Amino acid sequence: MSIESRSAVGEELDGELASLLEVERFEAPAKFREHALLSDPGVYDHAAADPVGWWEAQAQELEWFQKWTTVLDDSDPPFYKWFTGGTLNVSYNCLDRHVIAGRGDRVAFHWRGEEGEERDLTYAELLSEVERFASALKELGVSAGDVVGIYLPMIPEVVVAMLACARIGAPHNVVFGGFSAEAVRERMEFSEAKVLITVDGAARKGKTAAVKDRVDEVMGDLASLERIVVVKSKGTACQMQEGRDVYYEDILAAADPVCPAEPLDAEHPLYILYTSGSTAKPKGILHTTGGYLTGVAATHRYVFDLKPDSDVYWCAADVGWVTGHSYIVYGPLCNGATSVMWEGAPDYPSKDIWWEIVERYGVTILYCAPTAIRACIKWGAQWPNKHDLSSLRLLGSVGEPINPKAWLWYHKVIGAERCPIVDTWWQTETGAIMISPLPGITATKPGSATQPFPGVFAEVRDESTGEPIEEGQGLLVLTHPWPSMLRTLYKEEERFIETYFKRFGTETYLVGDAARRDRDGYIWVIGRIDDVVNVSGHRLSTAEVESAIVAHTDVAEAAVIGQHDEDSGQAIVAFVTLQGELQGDDSTVEGIRETVAERIGKFARPKRIIWTEDLPKTRSGKIMRRLLRDIADGRALGDVTTLRDPAVMQQLEAQVKELSAREE
Questions:
Q1: Alpha-carbon span 434 to 431, nearest angstrom
Q2: According to DSSP H, which parts of 304-391 are helical?
Q3: How far is the C-alpha of 4 from the C-alpha of 6, rounded, in Å?
Q4: Domains plus CATH for the chain?
Q5: Residue 136 in contact with residue 368, Cβ under 8 Å?
Q6: Predicted TM-score (pTM) of this structure
Q7: Looking at the predicted structure, is the pLDDT value of residue 521 above 80?
Q8: By CB atoms within 10 Å of each CB, which of 264, 265, 418, 437 scores lowest?
Q9: Is the distance from CB of 469 to CB of 514 less than 8 angstroms?
Q10: Helix (H) / strand (E) containing 477
């Protein structure tokens, strides 16, 4: 597609959307399919006929110190075990084996800082630093089974810290760098972390935020925490407590340069990752070693059709989330990939920084969130059009269902209609991708995650009867164990069963998402079960309404909530961001309502539309609908410091008050 035609895409999208949903399919170009790692549809039947054998074959791609005696131990569901009797080490699989095979000079990460700083880290260099830091951790008293907290931004040291922990069998507990210090303390306290690795300061759009000093304010009396390791990243002065605090660089220089990888049982804990809870304390998702690595390596290889000798892969997420664990660190490194790591926002120092990075490093595979894609739509096609994106051959989407309009823009403007899109569905709990196209096999539909990955069994079940639905909407469940599944909630086994296995029994995992299966058997993940609005008896997914609103020509992004209504039980309230500098008026309101009526029905039209320049989002891009409900209902807001832009809340409160005054 030419630059000129790419620029006009925004005007064409809406006329095409109706024909795309469940009708038009997109196949990868013939050349792509011809060279894809998986191109035979028979792989699905093969894996379905013998899922245990399929996963065993994937595990054999790893390096094991000792092979397993049993592939799957399902004697005590839902506490499944995989590859029992086997021993391996994740750090060894991600580093040593590549260096031993002569691939030590291959770049593991092209790291780029927001002010243009660059660092290329080869597999041999990464192994050297990981061995030293693993030795340093042992000298600090860390041994197998001890929990190590990691609170770092997107710098190479975060990968070093994770792999060093994995090397000695110390489960890590990574906390996203955008969380508040109070949230870090909470997670360190729950997990009884012995050591915390943090940083002096972190970059944020040209400014440096103090990190270590904020940590000190809340961490002083935490009984389990013995040592704090501080990375000198930005040269920010910080307080160091004698006897407790040490600098990363100092202990690294003094450490033994040799630290062999510990042979660990396949079920040895690899990490704990806490998911945020809005009404209850966070859940500590526990992943183990052998099954997790099998899952992330296989899905990364086949979903992204990885060719490690030629691809440059970029997952534009943060290591603080499971996407970063699985598809920035463990999956790509296990597969010997060359990756890009970016410390910064998608719009700093300018709105074309992502596309500059793609061009600079010759990125071939890009994996990002729909939130980011929608932001790029709002900014306009002129930003990617400034750069040569011809290196791209595959695009991916992660984190939430992608609406068809964003999918098509991604396909046309970024992929120039030549790049397959893998729309992936999975969770912190699943560890690895569960539902996704295989790009050399699956014809895609904009907005559908399509089919379960080989060896994964997913169903849509009727909410009332629990029976499988061949076509229609219901609850998404996974009906067979898979290697990368969470083993439990850390120190909360009863909560683990209650949360995931109470409704349908110990052999059926309740995802917590609503989904529908279309006439072709494609799965459309709609959104969380609790993200549902009930209008006059009609149960509507907020994501479904949001997708319809975004189909309006002037709309860049939308978030929908339900609000109590005397007439209909609940009414739909939509918070809407318009394209560019457009201003909303009564005509725009009616146009949006009509668009929703056309795509869903008149009953789904928003009762209130509130204009906003942005939506309340976490720094990872997740829209905080809970805060929108608080604003709409006039409730006091809690802590909003973890938002990407806390000032958004003040603007929204003013908008709601103004609208309420007009309505009265």
A1: 9
A2: 322-324, 331-334, 353-361, 370-379
A3: 5
A4: 532-663 (3.30.300.30)
A5: no
A6: 0.86
A7: yes
A8: 418
A9: no
A10: strand 472-478
